[in-house]
Backbone:
């Protein structure tokens, strides 16, 4: 699953990293963005945004892969931070 998550994260970074702070700020109040995984049609990528800090400055964008198991839905997650100056930081 880590390989699929890494692929999903790379895809999201390519597709959405240039969107900027305002885009992600607007996404905080919206439904998650969900679309098919580019390398596995049986999986879906979910993207959600939330405030990361108080006072509200950085936005944490969570990238996860939706898939069902017999125990329910599992959400492996990777994330990145978007700052008001539109810079992006990927935690190591």
Residues:
């Amino acid at each position: 699953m880590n390989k699929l998550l890494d692929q999903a994260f790379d895809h999201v970074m390519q597709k959405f990293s240039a969107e900027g702070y305002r885009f992600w700020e607007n996404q905080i109040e919206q439904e998650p963005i969900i679309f098919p995984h580019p390398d596995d049609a049986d999986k879906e990528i979910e993207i959600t945004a939330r405030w990361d800090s108080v006072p509200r400055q950085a936005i944490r964008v969570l990238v996860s892969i939706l898939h069902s198991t017999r125990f329910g839905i599992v959400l492996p997650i990777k994330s990145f931070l978007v700052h008001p100056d539109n810079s992006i930081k990927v935690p190591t």
